[in-house]
Design brief:
Elements lengths: L11 H15 L11 H8 L3 H13 L3 E2 L7 E2 L6 E5 L4 E5 L3 H7 L7 E5 L5 E5 L3 E5 L1
Parallel strand pairs: 3-7
Antiparallel strand pairs: 1-2, 4-5, 5-6
Helix pairs in contact: 1-3, 2-3
InterPro entries: Bact_HTH_transcr_reg, Tscrpt_reg_HTH_GntR, WH-like_DNA-bd_sf, WH_DNA-bd_sf
Protein name: GntR family transcriptional regulator
Pfam families: GntR (PF00392)
Length: 136
């Protein structure tokens, strides 16, 4: 088990982020699984509830977890990625979506929205976490 290093220069809540991210990446906490409770994480790692909440907020902003009021925090399912071909003259801009756009696209908090302005005059929108851009 990885432990929090109180003597490290890295803030305690970011050390917890690193631990949880590592468990998610390694499959110890697979997509859809329930994260341990804030109280459990605080007790297990010797942290305050505030530090645990800050860590979970960072993971939420990274799109790694989903928090729903009244339900346990879960590891976010990783969507199938779609390849979007870019043609010469196409431009891509990233921006944060409005709240309405975020809800309509089913995007995580902190996930950018990509606007692909096509040379032919159309504009396509894509949640950044679901696509891979490839030049044709």
């Amino acid at each position: 088990m990885v432990v929090i290093d109180r003597d490290a220069d890295r803030p305690l809540h970011k050390q917890l982020v690193d631990i949880l991210r590592g468990q998610i990446d390694a499959g110890v906490l697979p997509p859809g699984s329930v994260l341990p409770s804030e109280i459990y994480l605080a007790q297990t790692h010797g942290l305050s509830k505030t530090a645990v909440r800050r860590a979970l907020e960072l993971l939420l902003n990274e799109g790694l977890i989903i928090k729903t009021k009244g339900k346990p925090t879960r590891v976010r399912e990783r969507p199938q990625r779609k390849v979007v071909l870019l043609e010469p003259g196409d431009e891509v801009n990233a921006r944060m979506p409005t709240e309405a756009e975020r809800r309509s696209w089913g995007m995580s908090v902190g996930e950018p929205l990509l606007e692909v302005s096509r040379r032919r005059g159309t504009v396509d929108f894509f949640p950044a976490g679901t696509i891979t851009l490839r030049a044709s």
